[in-house]
Amino acid sequence: MTEYTLIRSGRKTLALEISRDCKVIVRAPQKMPQKKIDEFVEQYDSWIKKNLEKQRKRANEQSSLTENDIAELKRRAYDYLPERTEYFAKIMGVEYSGVKITSAKTRYGSCSAENSICFSYLLMLKPLRAVDYVVVHELAHTVHHNHSRQFYAFIEKYMPDYKERIKELKK
Predict the structure, then answer these.
(1) Which one of 1, 37, 50, 151 has the lowest number of neighbouring Cβ atoms within 10 Å?
(2) pLDDT tens per residue across span 68-86
(3) Co-location of 73 and 137 in the same domain
């Protein structure tokens, strides 16, 4: 049985989470029987193992970066991302209010309600085809501020192979 931390609250459903420090967290309703929680964890054992491995890999990748590596990744991000954002915005016919490069560790990109787009410098560790997908993904949020079917249809219109690029991003 996988070791986990249990957090009980007023929630109605069970949830699994892998923390940044590679701990398994289970969130459960206050009065749910322990047996049911253990069965839930057992049922998702392969998901837990797969995602623990991903998280360990991500943590190792980030912790092995030197200050020079980080400076180089940031330089590449500043050189590449604003230019590609402008390029795809013209093709897609969308407007955004600006591009920022951040040190975010858990997400490669985000788009605010004001259509300001942020990219993590860590995105530059990925293949450029995958990086371009993140650019298009964030620009699509200027039109659809969600992950609906229409959002992905909008992405597919400009990047028909986006599903392959997502796989490259996850490698």
Answers:
(1) 1
(2) 999 999 999 999 999 999 9
(3) yes
